[in-house]
Specification:
elongated; about 0% strand; little secondary structure
Length: about 80
């Protein structure tokens, strides 16, 4: 039975990527297929599906100035016991 194993790994300073994959069976033959794909650099992209307009986070992050003050919350509603 074929099994897909996805591994994230980092190449060493010698430019060599070393893989160790535990397979569970000793003295067994395996066919191994490797697809080498560089991992993309992480970026802060807010998708349109999030509901925020493009550029909103970048324009507002760190924009708050002054003290954060919580105003009066009113009186707590008293309810009958059940």
């Amino acid at each position: 039975m074929a099994k897909v194993i996805q591994v994230n790994s980092r190449a060493g300073e010698d430019g060599v990527l070393r893989l160790e994959i535990p397979v569970g069976l000793v003295n067994a033959d395996y066919e191994v297929v490797v697809v080498l794909q560089p991992k993309p650099e992480p970026s802060v992209v807010v998708p349109a599906s999030s509901g925020w307009p493009p550029g909103f986070i970048e324009q507002t992050a760190g924009a708050w100035q002054g003290e954060l003050v919580r105003g009066p919350q009113g009186e707590y509603e008293v309810r009958e016991d059940l």
